[in-house]
Amino acid sequence: MSAQAPSAVILIRAERFTPNPATAADNAFQGDVPTGQSEDEISARALAEMDALAAALRDAGVRVHVFADEDHTRPDSVFPNNWLSTHAGGSVAVYPMYASNRRHERRTDVLEMLKSDYRVQSIVDYSGLEPDGIFLEGTGAMVLDHVSRVAYTARSHRADIAVLERFCTDFNYEPMAFDAVDAGGVPVYHTNVIACVGTEVAMIALEMIPDEVRREQVRERLSVNGRQVVELTEDQIREFAGNAVELCGRTPEGKRRYIMAMSSRARRSLRPDQVAVIEESCEIVDVDIPTIELAGGSVRCMIAGVHLDRRVPLEEAVLTEAVEAINEDNPVTPDGRNIANFD
């Protein structure tokens, strides 16, 4: 398993989709639903886009867990990365959400699947901070470098620094907070729209960090282990170029492959030289999701990565024990072949 790029993901297949009016005030990336289109039409297109993403990831050899959402009161449930993150060693975090109508996106069935299919040692739940007006919206608010253990975080009312530091203490990350604003001085609502950290490449809009000293500190920290930094422009950020995620898939032959998943809109915004740097370590997999992007998030927001060790299925464990028993009772040739008669 790659420390940075998970080989399994969780997607939520929301039957009812619409941009959330409760988040429009501070999410400058949200768009308006085209005039004359019904909620049924919008939802149908969004479902097709969700299914296309799931299919593209599976085709790339990524394990995809899809959960249906039939609740029509959860407009943003397609973005599970805001309430859930998983971590190597068996830890899961559950987060406090800013918009009250998003808080019931948290699902026990997702957590139960993780506990049954993966090795989960602990679940740390920060959602009890919501009544105090304290929020940290998961890997939307934080962009995590799992290799160097750094949590890059743009300050906003969706990313409280006190709970960031608490998370970093609990999960052994170094907090690296900074201010990030657009050309009009509006704070960036989620860090993951301006930054993506992969194993050997990172993409970030450093020009949106107004403090020049802090900007250079972020650049240096990202590149300290030889990672290449692709600098994005604000125009590219508005095309969701920063809202990408590195995943670890498999070829049909079983060979490991790294992919950078993003939207087709984001891919079209990248310059050839930027694409060349990314493709030195990752294959770009892009999916067209214009309807979902109306809600102010893109491919990264749709994916909750699974960084947990998988449990061995019972039948596989029994087979392994049987083979081990056979090997104990039968001699092998010098080249390691068992010479038991299986006829």
UniProtKB/TrEMBL annotation:
The keyword Transferase applies. SUPFAM superfamilies: Pentein. Gene3D superfamilies: L-arginine/glycine Amidinotransferase, Chain A. GO terms for molecular function: transferase activity. Keywords: Transferase. This is Amidinotransferase.
